[in-house]
């Protein structure tokens, strides 16, 4: 398995509850390195652009408003098979279906306020990393 990079977002429900450190510990314990990280407050337009792929789904408006409601922490995680590994550590989208020990099982409030975002494939990881970070901001 190759070394990969993936885009992670610690969402407003988690930053609000001061869970950034606990969530980062889950990534690091799984062998994922945080090679870039910043705290930002997305505008509604920026959230809409990031989640454009979901624009026809019924929850799109609610999702964008939530993501723009309070600051988020955007980060690049690096490691062996980082994209799949991160999805494993995150757990299922709906916390009711997430495995024990996953971030969403432990911290998510609902299917909407589910604490973390993670890229789902190499192409989306590359696009999503470029959405938030320039090459100079990623240290390796
Ligand atoms: P994931 O974040 O696990 O990749 P996704 O890409 O299908 O899940 O959806 C993106 C986000 O949209 C998800 O993290 C939370 C929100 N969402 C998904 N399904 C939803 C639903 N049924 N009701 C409300 N929000 C939902
Ligand atoms: Mg997704």
Automatic annotation (TrEMBL):
Pfam families: NDK (PF00334). GO terms for molecular function: nucleoside diphosphate kinase activity. The keyword Plastid does not apply. It is found in: Cytoplasm. It catalyses: a 2'-deoxyribonucleoside 5'-diphosphate + ATP = a 2'-deoxyribonucleoside 5'-triphosphate + ADP; a ribonucleoside 5'-diphosphate + ATP = a ribonucleoside 5'-triphosphate + ADP. SUPFAM superfamilies: Nucleoside diphosphate kinase, NDK. Homotetramer. Belongs to the NDK family. This is Nucleoside diphosphate kinase. It comes from Ruixingdingia sedimenti. The gene is ndk.
């Amino acid at each position: 398995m190759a070394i990969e990079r993936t885009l992670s977002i610690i969402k407003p429900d988690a930053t609000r509850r001061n869970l950034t450190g606990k969530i980062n510990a889950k990534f690091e314990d799984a062998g994922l390195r945080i090679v870039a990280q910043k705290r930002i407050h997305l505008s509604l337009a920026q959230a809409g652009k990031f989640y454009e792929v979901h624009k026809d789904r019924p929850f799109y408006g609610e999702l964008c408003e939530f993501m723009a409601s309070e600051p988020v922490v955007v980060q690049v995680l690096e490691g062996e098979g980082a994209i799949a590994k991160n999805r494993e550590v995150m757990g299922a989208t709906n916390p009711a279906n997430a495995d024990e020990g996953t971030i969403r099982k432990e911290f998510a409030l609902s299917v909407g306020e589910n604490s973390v975002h993670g890229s789902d494939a190499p192409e989306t990881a590359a696009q999503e990393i470029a959405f938030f970070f320039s090459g100079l901001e990623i240290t390796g």
